[in-house]
Design goal:
alpha+beta, 8 helices, globular, six-stranded antiparallel sheet, single chain
C-alpha cells in the first residue's frame, strides 16, 4: 500500500488512482493547483490558498467554484490517513474530461479534483540553514503568470538548467528586471528596505509573500514594491525567496556575485522565524 490520495470524492491507494487520457489537464495543461504546507499535522494559510484557487478558476472561466468546506474536509482527511506531520498537500483541479478540442467543453462537464501528500522537511533543511545560490535566465513564460496553472514546463526547464550549472534555482528576468523564481517570489534587502516586485500579471501573488509582507512591517522594516535589476540584486545587503514550501529561504549568491558575506542575512533569519511563528499560530 502506498499513499492514500484523493480523486473526485474518493480516497484511494495511489496505485488505484486513475485519470482519463482525455482529461484536459493532460491534453492542454488546462488545470490549476495549490500547495498547502502542513506543520504539526495542521494546514498553513489554507483559507488564503483556497481564495487564490477561486481567483484562478474565475480568471480561466471555469464553470463553477469548489466548496471550501469540502476542500478542507478532504485535506484534513489526507493528513489523517497518511499520518502527515510535516510536508505539503498538492491540490489540482482540471476542467475535466472531454473530447479533444481547443474550445472549452460544455459547462456541465465535471471538474477533475485530485490531491496527494508529500513528506518534506520544511522547518529544518540545508537551504534554510546555509542559503541557496541562484542564476538568472530569460523569463519566457506566457503573459498570465498571476494564474496558478500547471503550465510549468518552462520553470521546470529553467530550474533544471540551473541545477546542471551548479545552482539551486533560477531567477527569471524580463525587460531587464527580475520577475520571480521558478517556484517562488524573489526579494532583496537594501539599506533597511525590503524590496519585491509589484504584483502584476507577470508574477504569482504568493500566499507566503503576502504573509511575509506583514511580518516585515511588524519587524519595523519598510516594504517597497518595485522592479529591481540583476545588478541591484547582486549588490543587495540580503536576498531571499518565499513560497509555501520554502517559507523564507536566504539567497547567498546570484550568478557569480556573493550576497553580503555569503551567509544567510540577519534580517532574513528574523523574518523566517517570525513567519513560522505566525504560521503555526493560525494553522488549522
Amino acid at each position: 500500500m502506498g499513499r492514500t490520495v484523493y480523486l473526485n470524492g474518493e480516497y484511494l491507494d495511489e496505485a488505484q488512482a486513475k485519470v482519463s487520457i482525455f482529461d484536459r489537464a493532460l491534453l492542454f495543461s488546462d488545470a490549476l493547483y495549490e500547495v498547502t504546507s502542513v506543520l504539526d499535522g495542521k494546514l498553513i494559510d489554507f483559507k488564503n490558498h483556497m481564495k487564490r484557487l477561486d481567483r484562478s478558476m474565475t480568471e480561466l472561466n471555469y464553470p463553477k467554484l469548489l466548496d471550501h468546506k469540502d476542500l478542507e474536509l478532504f485535506h484534513r482527511g489526507l493528513v489523517k490517513k497518511n499520518n502527515l506531520k510535516e510536508g505539503v498537500i498538492y491540490l489540482q483541479v482540471s476542467r475535466g474530461v472531454a473530447e479533444r478540442s481547443f474550445d472549452f467543453p460544455d459547462k456541465k462537464t465535471e471538474l477533475t479534483v485530485s490531491a496527494f501528500t508529500q513528506v518534506k522537511d520544511l522547518l529544518k533543511n540545508d537551504a534554510a540553514l546555509k542559503g541557496i545560490q541562484v542564476m538568472t535566465t530569460d523569463d519566457m513564460r506566457w503573459g498570465r503568470c498571476d494564474i496558478k496553472t500547471v503550465q510549468l514546463l518552462y520553470p521546470s526547464f529553467a530550474k533544471s538548467s540551473a541545477v546542471e550549472k551548479g545552482f539551486d534555482d533560477a531567477w527569471m528576468v524580463r525587460n531587464g528586471f527580475i520577475t520571480e523564481g521558478t517556484s517562488n517570489n524573489a526579494w532583496i534587502i537594501r539599506k533597511g528596505t525590503v524590496i519585491t516586485r509589484q504584483f502584476d500579471n507577470l508574477i504569482l501573488r504568493g500566499i507566503t509573500r503576502e504573509a511575509v509582507i506583514e511580518c516585515a512591517k511588524e519587524l519595523n522594516y519598510k516594504v517597497d514594491f518595485k522592479n529591481f535589476t540583476i545588478n541591484e540584486a547582486q549588490s543587495a545587503d540580503e536576498a531571499f525567496v518565499t513560497s509555501a514550501t520554502t517559507f523564507v529561504t536566504p539567497v547567498i549568491k546570484i550568478n557569480q556575485s556573493t550576497i553580503g558575506d555569503g551567509k544567510p542575512g540577519k534580517f532574513t533569519k528574523l523574518l523566517r522565524e517570525k513567519y513560522i511563528e505566525k504560521a503555526k499560530k493560525i494553522a488549522i
